[in-house]
Amino acid sequence: MNSKKAITLLVLATLLLTTLPIVPVKAIAVTSTSSYDVVYDDTITVLGTGVTAGATVEVYWDAVQPWDGEAGKLNSTKAKSSGAFELWFDVPEAVNGDHYLWLEDVQTGDTMVVPTPITVNAHVEADPDAGLDGDTITLNGYGFNDEVDI
Predict the structure, then answer these.
(1) Of 51, 115, 124, 136, which one's alpha carbon is 20 to 30 angstroms from that of 82?
(2) pTM, whole model, 2 decimals?
């Protein structure tokens, strides 16, 4: 190929590329999570960025299920004009082990899973946590697997 053809092809390719729209890539990102090792009813705070300004951001436990907007939904908030957000929720009753948080930008439908799992630990609560001889105390266990002797 001679240099005139090469220059012509280069100019044509450059012109074609300039007609393509440039769309900024925006992705939901979690900047911090208050805890990854929890028990039932602990409060977790999630800070993040990358959602549509002013849009609703929802956090789900283990899955986003758009066919039933309330299934697994833990909380929602409005993003700031910068696209930053802060969510908090209480850990639901869950079997001990790893669980995942999902975030959804409701305006765009974009979702992301927080890559670090939340580890739920089994524990027992006493009510009341102190008493005298003969008092009745109720024990509640959370996070234990089904069919397990305790």
Answers:
(1) 115
(2) 0.70
